[in-house]
Write a structure and sequence with these properties.
It catalyses: DNA(n) + a 2'-deoxyribonucleoside 5'-triphosphate = DNA(n+1) + diphosphate. The chain has 398 residues and is α+β, with helices and mostly antiparallel strands. The chain contains 16 helices and 13 strands. The protein has 3 domains: 164 residues, Alpha-Beta Plaits (2-Layer Sandwich); 54 residues, Orthogonal Bundle (DNA polymerase, domain 1), CATH 1.10.150.20; 149 residues, Dna Ligase, domain 1 (2-Layer Sandwich). Helix 7 links the parallel strand 7 and strand 8. The chain binds a DNA duplex (18 and 18 nucleotides) through strand 3, helix 9, helix 12, strand 9 and strand 10.
Length: 398
DNA sequence: TCTGGGGTCCTAGGACCC
DNA sequence: TCTGGGGTCCTAGGACCC
């Protein structure tokens, strides 16, 4: 017994480009590209002419000379995203955001108060259209994976239900590239074996797929091809990394110039970390050399932090370690990403405080404020007043 | 194809511990 | 002095997604 189709995958169409067309009526009906050096998003009019995401701006103009290129307005996209997610959460409490423009919604428990999944999806699409002014496609199926494929197949501005008894007929004839997790490299490996459709992948033994694609990837994709996807809609997922990067072009950069860029990047992400009441433990420096080969260097701290000065010192040390390579090969991209991110109040913080008898609570709180920011102080004060609380065992801090 | 910026997850080797 | 297996953490790299 297979269960019912109660998972919605809702996905805004050509999101950035649609926001631009919504806000500038003269762009409607015209091919629009958001981006500059590279296409971040293309309107359907531009897609019809062969323009694709991640394509160079030059190539887009060659394919479509009358394309309108507009610079990205991230604030406008964030605002539109928040408005759409508010409608998602008003539809069901079980929302799992996947990215700025798509989410899974579990609506199985709503039949008596809100109707069938299809009725719920129709209302959702109408509301997003009326209240935010954007087109959104929705796929409905028994599993997250099938719902995601269904929304993609339904685009643009579509609604598609895959009933449980129609799953094989829907999925097996599709090309393997439609599988969520199959990109250029994996598709090429499968093609070399003559495997072009999902159905052909499903006919393999699982062990064969694992040998070809790696244990986890092979087992996962093979299960998807056989319609097995046990992942429930997960409302507790939180971002586990925060990063920022900057492409540099090919001209030479002095060490001072790189340091300025690094400082701006770290300052920005440290601020985002604190704004989200998060701390991190691992700092990753990402580089792309003059020959476009990528590299990364990372350092894990003994205790989590959100302090710009600490993060910057670590990032600078990592960059210094890479200087010989950079001098030799040149550099075309620099980025920093912070991982092992956790809520500030969920981690035990180690403080470089000497807890000899004479230390007073307010002295300790000053140290907390210096190291972890003012927001941490009320929490620390609370702990300090707890009669069951005793000073932590301390160790030397990096 | 003269190549953005934000993420997720997996792999593999080495260090270290029991 | 030589040896085993399992588990976790860290680092670096790679594939993939929007």
């Amino acid at each position: 017994m297979r269960g019912e189709a109660t998972v919605l995958h809702a996905d805004l169409d050509a999101f950035y480009a649609s926001v631009e067309q919504r806000d500038a009526p003269e762009l409607r009906g015209r091919p629009v590209v958001v981006g500059g050096g590279v296409v971040l998003a293309a309107s359907y009019e531009a897609k019809a002419r062969g323009v694709r995401t991640a394509m160079g701006g030059r190539q887009a103009r060659d394919l479509c000379p009358d394309v309108v290129v507009v610079p990205p307005r991230m604030d406008a996209y964030s605002a539109a995203s928040r408005a759409v997610f508010a409608i998602f959460r008003d539809t069901t409490p079980l929302v799992e955001g996947l990215s700025i423009d798509e989410a899974f919604l579990e609506v199985g428990g709503l039949r008596r108060i809100a109707g069938t999944p299809e009725q719920i999806a129709m209302r959702l699409r109408e509301r997003v259209r009326a209240e935010v002014g954007l087109a959104i496609s929705v796929g409905i199926a028994r599993t997250k994976f099938l719902a995601k494929v269904a929304s993609a197949v339904s685009k643009p501005d579509g609604l598609l239900v895959v009933e449980p008894e129609r799953e094989e007929a829907f999925l097996l004839p599709l090309p393997v590239e439609r599988l969520w997790g199959v990109g250029a490299v994996t598709a090429e490996k499968l093609h070399r074996l003559g495997i072009r459709t999902v159905g052909q992948l499903a006919e393999l033994e699982s062990a064969t797929a694992e040998r070809l694609l790696g244990k986890a990837t092979g087992a996962h994709l093979h299960a998807l091809a056989r319609l097995r996807d046990p992942r429930p809609v997960d409302t507790t997922r939180r971002r586990s990394a925060i990063g920022s990067q900057r492409a540099l072009g090919s001209r030479l950069r002095s060490a001072d110039e790189l340091d300025v860029i690094l400082t701006q990047i770290v300052d920005r992400i440290a601020r985002r970390l604190r704004d989200g009441d998060r701390v991190c433990r691992t700092v990753v420096l990402r580089l792309r050399y003059g020959d476009f080969v990528k590299a990364s260097r990372s350092r894990t701290l003994r205790s989590p932090t959100d302090r710009t000065a600490v993060l910057l010192a670590v990032a600078r040390a990592l960059l210094a370690g890479a200087q010989p390579e950079i001098a030799e090969r040149g550099i075309t991209l620099i980025g920093v990403s912070l991982s092992q991110v956790a809520r500030t109040d969920s981690v035990q913080l180690e403080l470089p405080i000497d807890w000899d008898d004479g230390v007073r609570l307010d002295t300790a709180l000053d140290a907390v404020r210096d190291r972890f920011g003012a927001a941490s102080v009320s929490r620390a004060a609370q702990l300090g007043r707890d009669p069951g609380w005793s000073p932590p065992q301390l160790s030397e801090h990096e």
